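input
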Amino acid sequence: LVITIHDDEDIVDPQATLKEQCGEKKDCEAFKNKLDECEARVSGKASTTETCEEELFDFIHCVDHCVSHKLFDQLK
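output
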């Protein structure tokens, strides 16, 4: 296996592209909205123990699930 990369070509990570696309899909929209609401609530308080960890994990899980169905089709 020989991979030739030309200096004038920008290499784009397909996983990063898919994560961005999947994060904007309707399937993950509810999780993103909950995360955004939590972040707004937490940043609006002077002192809190809330971390939005659960909301972040739920959103990441949704994005990763979406990516897992598409990533290997794009790999060469």
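quick obs: The radius of gyration is 17 Å.
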